[in-house]
Specification:
Blueprint (H helix, E strand, L loop, with lengths): L7 E4 L6 E4 L4 E11 L11 H18 L3 E11 L5 H18 L2 E9 L5 E11 L14 E5 L4 H11 L7 H8 L5 H9 L5 E4 L4 H12 L2 E5 L11 H6 L6 E5 L10 E2 L2 E10 L4 E5 L2 E4 L9
Parallel strand pairs: 4-5, 9-13
Antiparallel strand pairs: 1-2, 2-3, 3-6, 4-6, 7-10, 7-12, 8-10, 9-12, 11-12, 13-14
Length: 300
């Protein structure tokens, strides 16, 4: 067709989002995530509005990890027969509340019956200035490694649920698990100021996600155990390996670290280590250096 622009795939599998370009001023970011009952949540443990919140948060976190701005979402939802209409209403209340706060419009989707529990498939579309999206593959030796927020809160909440189901008394401790906050403002700031050489979100845990970032960049890393930001009640191993935090992990060139603020949007930023040339992962702990064990988040 005359005047029709061709949409080209610039980046596919291997990053938090696919990147498309039509030659204009902005690139298109597209991500999709599955959310399964019995794998990512249990309805007897989690309120419906928090399920809706987290379904959208997963996609928004991918957009944040590329330094993008989300704009549209598409939701496909398969519902088992025992789910009540009240539960569905509360689910969408949680999803729409986060969508409004993030400037996202639910533009479409699909619904179906399910014989194997609730299944949600979320697609989020966003944008970033042309060639400004941050990839996983840009880290270089000498870059510093940073994370946002406190690590391990979601996994610590999961441990509480497995130990005891007194949810009402543990609401504050469960917020990181039930209501994760995508770090959209931080991702945009890092991308637009050119501060991050590589970035991704922490969906499966620091150790395994750091390994993925280093593999994509062809480098290694050395982490300082004492630097990991965590709440007092969060065990060290949970902060190191626990997932579902949806914080951002990013590398910053040494010449740019002085421009990293202490916090963005009320979220603290912490330097935890350094990128190294050797393609190995090390953990410095109590004056000794040992190989960093790479473990991932275990779902239900």
């Amino acid at each position: 067709m005359p005047g029709r622009k061709t949409l080209l795939l610039k980046r596919g599998i291997g990053d938090d989002c696919a990147i498309f370009s039509d030659g204009g001023r902005n690139d298109l970011l597209v991500t999709t995530d599955l959310f399964l009952e019995g794998v990512h949540f249990r309805p007897e443990w989690q309120a419906a509005d928090s399920v809706g919140h987290k379904v959208l948060a997963r996609g928004l976190s991918d957009i944040a990890a590329m330094g993008g701005t989300p704009c549209y979402a598409f939701l496909s939802l398969a519902l088992p027969p025992q789910i009540s209409s009240r539960w569905v209403d509360d689910f969408f209340q949680g999803l729409f509340r986060l969508a409004e706060a993030s400037g996202v419009i639910l533009a479409g989707g699909d619904t179906s019956a399910s014989r194997s529990g609730l299944i949600a498939d979320i697609m989020v579309i966003g944008w970033a200035p042309r060639d400004k999206a941050v990839l996983r593959s840009g880290a270089r030796p000498g870059d510093e490694i940073w994370v946002s927020g406190a690590l391990g809160g979601a996994a610590a909440g999961m441990d509480l649920l497995r130990q005891e189901q007194k949810i009402a008394k543990r609401k504050d401790a469960l917020r990181p698990l039930f209501y994760p906050q995508p770090r959209l403002a931080l991702g945009r700031m890092l991308a637009r100021r050119g501060l991050a050489s590589a970035m991704m979100d922490l969906s499966d845990g620091l150790s395994i996600d750091l390994a993925r970032l280093c593999e994509a960049s062809g480098v290694g890393a050395r982490i300082e155990a004492e630097s990991l930001p965590r709440l007092p009640e969060t065990p060290f191993d949970t902060a190191l390996h626990g997932g579902e935090d949806f914080e951002l992990l990013f590398a910053v060139p040494d010449s740019r670290t002085g421009k990293i603020p202490k916090q963005v949007d009320g979220v603290g930023l912490t330097r935890i280590g350094k990128i190294i040339r050797s393609r190995r992962l090390w953990l410095r702990r109590e004056g000794r250096e040992e190989p960093l064990p790479v473990l991932g988040f275990q779902h239900f």
